[in-house]
Write a structure and sequence with these properties.
This protein is α/β, with parallel strands linked by helices. The chain has 3 domains: about 525 residues, Thiamin diphosphate (ThDP)-binding fold, Pyr/PP domains (Rossmann fold), CATH 3.40.50.970; about 220 residues, Rossmann fold (3-Layer(aba) Sandwich); about 130 residues, Rossmann fold (3-Layer(aba) Sandwich). Helices cover about 35% and strands about 10% of the residues. The chain has 27 helices and 24 strands. Helix 26 links the parallel strand 23 and strand 24. The chain starts with 7 loop residues before the first helix and ends with a helix. The structure holds thiamine diphosphate. The site of thiamine diphosphate (TPP) has 19 residues, from strand 7 and strand 9. Keywords: Oxidoreductase, Thiamine pyrophosphate, Tricarboxylic acid cycle. It comes from Micromonospora globbae. This is Thiamine pyrophosphate-dependent enzyme.
Length: about 900
């Protein structure tokens, strides 16, 4: 019944019927030959890829089965998209891949390939081309699977318990939350099913495994593969102890286990360790992607640019063309002739991140720079319930400048294999971007909770079933004389049984047990190693690197240049960073030729060349994406966002992509990055809100993110060195927020006093001048006994001036410069607050959501019992001209706040 086609049970029944109806081939042919005349795909390859597709299908069914009794937590499946197995088959297992969430079949093939299994060719010996790329063992050769057949016996270890514990949360998709599946809860629409007895020993084949039950008692349900597989055997009149499986290797066993561990949130899952259900594995060059559709595409472009950039760099260096600061690079994670593959759905091509990525790849191609990225758009015609307009996807993808278009039909495996092969080969040979428009269908709805009959007609759903890619491969195999329908059903059942066995095994695996375990991989910090790295950089700069350093600074190192401004200090520290980190690159809008809109990056391109210091196109999402990809490729990217206000339209690349990578990969992948952002207010005579944006709320709650705000030149350089070292050592994602208004400030109290400029530390002093992450700086004014002002950025200068005025009134103040907004220097805050018992928080960001809230909360949490007040920016955007003063913190407001506090 078409009204039921969204259920696993119905899909399973239909598939089985379709295969059975294929009958026997007219004549048997050699599987080593092409599947059709002239096809690149052989029968043996098609058979192995069929197994991968079936494994993926069975994983979908198993995921819904697990969900039906509350042991599975993710039901977005790959059903209908299994033609992506063909894409994996034309790639190398070392080609980095960022995958769509419907990539079960791709992942199976990639996993087997990495273990040395060549579809159609068996297992390649280790070390040979096509041999294993990792320790990952080839899938175990399966034991013969024997056991009782029929619903009652072959079912999974699901105990039909009493009604008191038998009902899992029911949801028919109509009453439950309208989950999009990616983010929300997803029931499978089952009417209520039995929960397993977790204490019961798992049934082993041959034992009397309890059967899945509906609340009405044991019997068939939407349950999935094993029950269904068994039903077929039963229908065939099989009796007890009849072997239901073919004895043969199953190269997709490891992949199946990985996926199912993800589904049950097992802490043994190989990439996210139970933190999310993602496709990823460091040994398979599969980089995890998030649920935010298309957000991985800017990163993919960055990876492509970095791979090609490294390749060119190494070619040039091999020819003797070494530039200043170009030492040995860390080992590249991927071979130099790799291509990057990234896949996504058809609705996702409309997303700003996707258009950004496709545009950026095309833009670079237009400039002559090579970006070897294969974009794969898996087009099932739907984004949850919204249809892609007829012809839109092809029109949109064909019309991308600089992106070569290839088309493949997933329901025609021979054609799809050939087209995918052509596309991958084209990208590899030309090192240029291409898109493969892979037509797919979507079976079983968007996710488990999605009742697609609410928005799709039975005819439409039925048409998709006709184009089932796995059935299409089966048809091809029978037509090619490689297998009969019956044999393929047997393979399907055999794999279903094995998948279900694995599912049962992973149910009992441990979950993440406490908060410490959850956050362990998020952003580990090793401050001693970071300090050592800074000291070593200093030693190198003073010793073996001295000549290069002298050359870079034109014979006049910055420590001999007299007092520097904030901008000059950052420029010098960037130069020193580029000298010490050959893998470092500085890029952004206007950073190279112009040297930045405030001159902070002036001269860097002349010193280090356009390969390492370059202007990007005007798109912050892409600027950050380039950084994310470069970091993953072993570089140390230092992208610049021209103004804080413009971070906001690209913020997800920091929050959703950069900051989550370690978390969702348990540190297997990291994106070391120091994002320089010019920001905060008080620019005299320039701006309005967008050039004086004073909100950092969007950054402060990003877990693991480091936020540095240097106020003074003599802090800026050491803090930048710390960020670079922390990114290199710990893979930290750092935001280095530079107060624009202080860039060129020289004076503090009076014109010409030069108190806001400072000398640059010579390399021998870098170790002693080191500023660890999360350590504040304290200035004592007068007795420093009466009042503690806690502040940062422009607030430091304002507060020091206010403190001087207060000192004239006999008030002794200590001014604490936080320097780090994340992690906050909590120990310093508490110590300095307790020293006076009167705290004034001077916060140039806004009263609501501003930094001051965090400082006050830290004091409360620590049990601080003294007095506290806050002076903060007004909850407003910053207006143009003198009106800005109406909403920003002033010196007057600080002294007033202090007096009020002291009067208590
Ligand atoms: C940026 C973003 N917006 C919304 C969602 C919610 N969502 C999850 S999947 C999806 C539809 C994606 O459709 P498509 O790209 O065609 O992929 P398909 O699921 O059809 O394979 C939506 C809207 C999301 N995950 N990310």
């Amino acid at each position: 019944m078409l009204s039921d086609v969204t259920t696993p049970h119905d899909l399973d029944d239909r598939f089985r019927e379709t295969l059975a109806a294929l009958g026997a081939p007219r004549r048997r042919r050699d599987p080593a030959g092409p599947v059709t005349d002239g096809a690149a795909l052989t029968g043996a390859q098609a058979l192995d890829l069929f197994d991968a597709q079936v494994t993926s299908r069975q994983l979908d069914l198993a995921a819904r089965w697990l969900r039906s009794f509350g042991e599975g937590f993710y039901t977005i499946g790959s059903a209908g998209h299994e033609s992506n197995a063909l894409v994996a088959a034309v790639l190398r297992p070392t080609d980095p891949a960022l995958l769509h969430y419907r990539s079960g079949a791709f992942y199976c093939v990639r996993s087997a390939q990495a273990a040395g299994f060549v579809p159609g060719g068996g297992v390649a010996p280790a070390g040979e081309a096509g041999g294993p790329v990792a320790e990952r063992a080839a899938g175990p050769v399966a034991e013969p699977v024997e056991g009782p057949v029929g619903h009652g016996a072959a079912g999974p270890a699901i105990q039909a318990e009493g009604a008191d514990r038998a009902v899992a949360p029911a949801g028919d998709g109509a009453e439950g939350p309208a989950a999009d599946g990616a983010d929300g809860p997803d029931g499978d629409g089952a009417e209520g099913v039995a929960v397993p007895d977790r204490d019961a020993a798992p049934a082993t084949p041959g034992e009397d495994a309890p059967v899945q039950a509906t609340p009405d008692g044991p019997g068939p349900s939407d349950a999935g593969p094993v029950a269904a597989g068994a039903s077929d055997a039963a229908a065939a009149g099989a009796s007890d102890d009849v072997a239901v499986a073919v004895q043969r290797p199953w190269p997709y066993a490891e992949a199946a286990r990985d996926v199912l561990r993800g589904v049950v949130a097992s802490s043994r899952e190989p990439i996210a360790g139970g933190r999310h259900k993602v496709f990823g594995h460091p040994d398979l060059a599969v980089v995890p992607t998030t649920s935010t559709i298309a957000s991985h595409l800017p990163r993919a472009v960055g990876m492509g640019l970095a791979i090609e950039g490294r390749r060119r760099l190494e070619t040039r260096r091999a020819g003797g063309g070494v530039r200043l600061g170009e030492g040995d690079l860390p080992a590249a994670p991927w071979p130099p002739d790799s291509i990057v593959v990234c896949s996504f759905g058809d609705a996702s091509i409309n997303h700003a991140s996707a258009t950004a990525a496709l545009n950026t790849a095309g833009w670079y191609d237009h400039t002559g720079l090579r970006i070897p990225v294969l974009f794969v758009c898996e087009d099932n015609g739907l984004g949850i319930s919204v249809r892609s307009p007829q012809g839109w996807v092809e029109t949109a993808l064909r019309s991308r400048p600089g992106i070569r278009y290839f088309a493949a039909d997933g329901s025609d495996p021979a054609q799809a294999y050939a087209a995918a092969g052509e596309a991958a080969e084209w990208v590899r040979r030309h090192r240029r971007p291409a898109v493969l428009h892979l037509r797919t269908v979507r079976l079983m709805g968007h996710a488990g909770a999605d009742a697609e009959t609410a928005y799709r007609s039975p005819a439409e759903i039925g048409a998709d079933l006709e184009r089932d890619p796995v059935a299409a491969t089966a048809r091809l195999l029978v037509e090619a004389g490689v297998a009969s329908g019956e044999e393929l059903v047997a393979r399907y059942d055999d794999i279903g049984w094995r998948v279900r066995q694995v599912a049962e095994e992973v149910i009992g695996e441990p979950k993440l047990a406490d908060a410490a375990e959850v956050v362990a991989p998020l952003a580990p910090r090793r401050p001693v190693r970071v300090a050592r790295a800074v000291a070593e950089a200093g030693a190198r700069a003073a010793g073996p690197g001295a000549a290069a350093r002298a050359e870079a600074f034109g014979g006049k190192p910055p420590e001999l240049a007299g007092p520097l401004t904030l901008a000059q200090s950052i420029n010098a520290a960037l130069t020193d960073g580029m000298l010490d980190h050959p893998e470092m690159a500085v890029f952004g809008e206007d950073v190279a030729a112009k040297g930045g809109v405030y001159g902070v990056t002036k001269g860097l391109r002349d010193r280090f060349g356009p390969a390492r210091v370059f202007d990007t196109l005007l798109d912050e999402t892409s600027v950050l994406g380039l950084g994310l990809g470069a970091g993953l490729a072993g570089m140390l990217p230092v992208p610049e966002i021209q103004y804080l206000a413009y971070l906001h339209n690209a913020e997800d690349q920091v929050r959703g992509e950069a900051a989550t990578m370690r978390f969702f990969s348990q540190g297997a992948y990291r994106n070391p990055m120091v994002v320089r952002i010019a920001g905060l207010a008080y620019q005299e005579g320039f701006g309005g809100h967008f050039h004086n944006d004073n909100s950092v709320a969007v950054l402060r709650d990003v877990p693991g993110l480091v936020i540095a705000v240097p106020a003074r030149p003599d802090d800026a350089a050491p803090m930048l060195r710390t960020c670079l070292a922390s990114a290199a050592v710990d893979g930290s994602v750092c935001v280095f927020l530079e107060p624009i208004a202080l860039y060129h400030t020289r004076d503090l109290y009076a014109d010409g006093d030069g108190e806001w400029s400072a000398p640059y530390a010579e390399p021998g002093a870098w170790a002693s001048a080191h500023v660890p992450i999360g350590r504040a700086r304290v200035y004592g004014v007068g007795s420093a006994e009466d009042l503690t002002i806690i502040t940062f950025g422009n607030g430091v200068r304002l507060s020091l001036r206010a403190a001087a005025a207060l000192a004239d009134e006999g008030v002794g103040t200590r001014v604490v410069d936080l320097r780090w907004l994340a992690p906050l220097p909590v120990a310093d805050i508490i110590r300095e607050a307790s020293a006076t018992g009167r705290v004034l928080v001077v916060d140039e960001t806004r009263r609501s959501g501003g930094v001051g809230e965090g400082v006050i909360a830290a004091l409360v949490d620590a049990g601080y019992v003294g007095a506290a007040r806050r002076v903060a920016g007004v909850d407003s955007f910053v207006p143009l001209g003198p009106a800005a003063r109406q909403v920003l913190v002033s010196e007057d407001a600080i002294t007033q706040g202090a007096r009020t506090l002291l009067a208590r």
